[in-house]
Amino acid sequence: MKVNGTPMRTIWLNDDGWSVDIIDQTIFPFCFEIVTLRSVPDCARAITDMLVRGAPLIGATAAYGMALAMRKDASDAGLSSAYEVLHATRPTAINLKWALDRMRAVLLCLPQNQREAAAYTEAARLCDDDVAVNSAIGDHGLELIKAIAKTKTAGEPVNILTHCNAGWLATVDWGTATSPIYKAHDLGLNVHVWVDETRPRNQGDALTAWELNQHGVPHHVIVDNAGGHLMQHGKVDLVIVGTDRTCANGDVCNKIGTYLKALAAHDNNIPFYVTLPSSTIDFSLNDGVQIPIEERDGSEVSHVLGRAEDGTVLKVQLTPDGSPLANPAFDVTPARLVTGLITERGIVAADTAALAALFPERAGQAH
Amino acid sequence: MKVNGTPMRTIWLNDDGWSVDIIDQTIFPFCFEIVTLRSVPDCARAITDMLVRGAPLIGATAAYGMALAMRKDASDAGLSSAYEVLHATRPTAINLKWALDRMRAVLLCLPQNQREAAAYTEAARLCDDDVAVNSAIGDHGLELIKAIAKTKTAGEPVNILTHCNAGWLATVDWGTATSPIYKAHDLGLNVHVWVDETRPRNQGDALTAWELNQHGVPHHVIVDNAGGHLMQHGKVDLVIVGTDRTCANGDVCNKIGTYLKALAAHDNNIPFYVTLPSSTIDFSLNDGVQIPIEERDGSEVSHVLGRAEDGTVLKVQLTPDGSPLANPAFDVTPARLVTGLITERGIVAADTAALAALFPERAGQAH
């Protein structure tokens, strides 16, 4: 994706050859700032405080965290300690563990003096793999959009609703849910995106709308409450969302509120697709409600970040003093509401047999 | 309801005996200010700018607007002009037309010199009627809460989810959706309320949470995205919402997002009740999708009112510059998702026959 006309990724090696640059996503869409990570605690903080978010980018950041760890202490103890610190940052994202396991598997069997170089190489490879995976997801999803576009008369857009940000900013490049959209737009298809603002952290406002704006994709921002109404009135052709974790049976754990949109899509016979790199599939889980749901700080509900008329970016309080808050961060969309899963290997039904057939090597491993 | 320990209504005659006092609900929950209305344009502005909102309170404000009109010009032309101005303020609320029609019917058959006094009397009566109606709704809804409370073990609350503000502040007193809750709480039943913040205008944050706080009813504020997850996990026993307009067939038009909660309640076998004074039933409509849905200004989506740390109350921008916005204000919940309608005459199924049987005099009129 391009930012101010320049192609960029969301994470890259700094010119110094060892530290790691990311974009601070907590101050979007008002500021664009690059932050340099120089240690495991830097990486852990970037994940916990959500300077980086989105399963694939969390994984990439953790992978580079392991490289920074090896630079400082390449012993088994150093490796194990970095693994633990990074693993504890976000409980829900399966990608985090997947990336850390991949790094550990490469590093553990090497002598200590080779670990630093190998860790940087593997982290870079993990990032390139993510880009390739997302591009493939885009190619498969593009076919769905092409098919809908064929049913439209001239000038009528394909209306796609998305929730949260499974975009470029959630990955190393392309995004997952946005990848088919960018591919369709770049091909000249007439696509229009309904962007859920995605309370409480407003990733739709801050990230998805910002991305689409930068890339020139037509869109409207709506509140999370509006999608059902738009679907009832034929204004949505397709829902595409991402996922933080997908179960072997096709249950999908994604940003809070996804389940409500899936219900509305189902009620209005609108296809509801979930894009995912297969790394987010947890073949050991057969029921989404088993997934531990992160309960985040209530201040995310009571306060919101915005820009005042004078340009100051600040948090303001929305709720009355003294009102208690609850803030579950994710919900589970049962497989029965999912039309299909768009993976790097193709589109597959959200059920155990179909997923196992598409990823036999991983499905076998879990049992 | 009590505010700072003092029983209050939301609209009342000023001590001067002719002007009308209301509470400015646009600056809640941070400020509490009383505004005096002295003319039809004052009343129209109070309704359009949502200083007052909620179908019953809009009706009461319009009724007093007619009284203020009669004070200035009690001619048929004055009556007709005030009716038009007030009627044009909000297209969706059926109560508005109902209250204006009631006032006009009383006034038109009187000589001009009796109209002012009669208008004030009728507006006061309309307010008293609203209080009585809401109290009756509370009594009927209370029985539902009592029945659920009986299934709970000691210390377990009855968890009720509500959307938007169909509370005291939306009516002259008691509220509609909150009336059963206040009655249950006052009886000593253990009730706990999940308060949807209700974007884009955050009436849940600003109004419902404020009210419940003042009255001491246990509650948590949640984002609109969270309700489905809470229902999936058995944390909601009952949904009670209000309605701006109810069709003869039981379709319900209420704040945007209500439909999504109804879908989630249905998917989890949780009773979904709608409270309404029968004045909000439009017996001439048999299909909710015929209701014209107000598209409000996009700035309600892009901006939000909050309080900065230094106490300043200000609007901040949430969305990126240049991102277009869409802002439908209401949605329609089909009758098939509504467990029952709680009216002043009792609880009734959301269907044509049941509604017509309970309100034969109104159902007959429409055909």
Question: What does the model show?
Answer:
Two copies of one chain form a homodimer. Chain A is an alpha/beta fold. Chain A contains twelve helices and 18 strands. Chain A has two domains: 2-129, Up-down Bundle (Four Helix Bundle (Hemerythrin (Met), subunit A)), CATH 1.20.120.420; 136-365, Translation initiation factor eif-2b, domain 2 (Rossmann fold, 3-Layer(aba) Sandwich), CATH 3.40.50. Helices cover 40% and strands 19% of the residues of chain A. In chain A, the strands form five sheets. Chain A has a seven-stranded mixed β-sheet with strand order 8-7-6-9-12-17-18, sandwiched between helices. In chain A, strands 13-10-11-16 form a four-stranded mixed β-sheet, covered by helices on one side. In chain A, strands 3-4-5 form a three-stranded antiparallel β-sheet, covered by helices on one side. In chain A, helix 1 packs antiparallel against helix 2 (55-72), helix 2 (55-72) packs parallel to helix 4 and helix 3 (76-87) runs antiparallel to helix 4 (94-108). The longest helix of chain A has 39 residues, at 112-150. The interface between A and B is large, with 66 and 66 residues.
